[in-house]
């Protein structure tokens, strides 16, 4: 496990600061305001059909109007480099918001010869914004936006045969769901040797349970699996602001406590330090599934 350092942050491109605690920083109408901003942009005809120009217009809104919780340019480069290296046929993101990462990574997947980019978004209004901007960028042939909670969508895509393998997964949704959704994907054999995971916000706000899981040794995971210690959902290690981030709109997020995943998968994981688009330091955890140990497991899962 290594630590890589990104270049210095360029303050000229900084987004507006995220609002102070107690003040909404999303879902207060700004997502629809963004659509009006983009579609009434003086350069709308040049923006049409250009993923780069759509991203520039989104960045312009977030620099000059209101903060948007996008992955941004710096952390985005880490993932687009990964896409160029791994050349995924199928990539999935958990948490699409207004479509920034979807347009950036969906375009990179298409350029690398990939087939499908799934963007899973729980909030139907945000999903509608993603679809509109993906269409504007000319990426509707590659991108499929899936509306609903990530776990339900993963199960449905798997059950219908639309999703049989994930080559690259970007995790950027409800922080405690990173680990439960990864275990679900392991259980369904969507994550197998060759799969690469890129998890956002592992420094800000941080995700200790996820980091512990992907950095854990296989022997330790097997022990926990056998003893049932690995069971349950960890919501400790998150500040309330992040744990309750979506509660007002979506209600309490019900995460599965039953699915234990596949403890036999061998991961190599490293933190790549970078910046939020506001300039605040953050990092992406890159995890490569490099093999699978032979070890008998009793399937522990009642609720699929
Ligand atoms: C940080 S934003 C995603 C930003 C986006 N990946 C980008 O960089 O442009 C997190 C998003 O995850 C969505 N979300 C939260 N919990 C979710 C869940 N269980 N399933 C699907 N989406 C979820 C939220 O509605 C929000 O839009």
From TrEMBL:
UniProt keywords, alphabetically: Catecholamine metabolism, Methyltransferase, S-adenosyl-L-methionine, Transferase
GO biological process: catecholamine metabolic process; methylation
Any one Pfam family match given in the protein's UniProt record, by short name: Methyltransf_3
Single Gene Ontology MF annotation: O-methyltransferase activity
Keyword match S-adenosyl-L-methionine: yes
Biased composition (Polar residues): 227-237
InterPro entries per record: SAM-dependent_MTases_sf (IPR029063), SAM_O-MeTrfase (IPR002935)
Region Disordered: start-end pairs: 221-241
Lineage top rank: taxon: Eukaryota
EC number of this enzyme: 2.1.1.6
Family membership noted in the UniProt record: Belongs to the class I-like SAM-binding methyltransferase superfamily. Cation-dependent O-methyltransferase family.
Name the UniProt record assigns to this protein: catechol O-methyltransferase
Phylogenetic placement of the source organism: Eukaryota, Fungi, Dikarya, Ascomycota, Pezizomycotina
């Amino acid at each position: 496990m290594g630590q890589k350092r990104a270049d210095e942050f360029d303050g000229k491109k900084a987004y507006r600061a995220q609002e102070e605690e107690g003040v909404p920083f999303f879902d207060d109408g700004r997502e629809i305001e963004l659509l009006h901003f983009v579609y009434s942009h003086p350069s709308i005809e040049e923006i049409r059909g250009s993923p780069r120009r759509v991203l520039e217009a989104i960045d312009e809104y977030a620099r000059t109007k209101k903060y948007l919780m996008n992955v941004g340019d710096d952390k985005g480069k880490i993932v687009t480099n990964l896409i160029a290296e791994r050349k995924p046929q199928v990539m999935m993101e958990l948490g699409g918001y207004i479509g920034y990462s979807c347009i950036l990574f969906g375009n990179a997947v298409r350029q690398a010869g990939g087939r499908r980019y799934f963007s899973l978004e729980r909030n139907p209004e945000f999903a509608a914004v993603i679809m509109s901007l993906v269409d504007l960028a000319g990426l509707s042939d590659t991108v499929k936006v899936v509306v609903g909670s990530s776990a339900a969508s993963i199960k449905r895509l798997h059950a219908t045969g639309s999703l049989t393998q994930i080559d690259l997964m970007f995790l950027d949704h409800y922080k405690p769901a990173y680990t439960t959704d990864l275990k679900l994907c392991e259980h369904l054999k969507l994550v197998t040797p060759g799969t690469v995971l890129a998890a956002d916000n592992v420094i800000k706000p941080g995700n200790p349970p996820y980091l512990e899981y992907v950095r854990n040794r296989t022997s330790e995971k097997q022990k926990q699996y056998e003893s049932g210690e690995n069971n349950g959902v960890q919501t400790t290690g998150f500040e309330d602001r992040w744990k309750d981030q979506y509660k007002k709109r979506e209600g309490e997020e019900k995460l599965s406590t039953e699915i234990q995943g596949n403890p036999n998968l061998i991961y190599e994981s490293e933190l790549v330090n970078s910046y939020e688009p506001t300039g605040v330091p953050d990092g992406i955890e890159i995890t490569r599934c490099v093999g699978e140990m032979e070890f008998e497991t009793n399937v522990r899962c009642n609720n699929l």
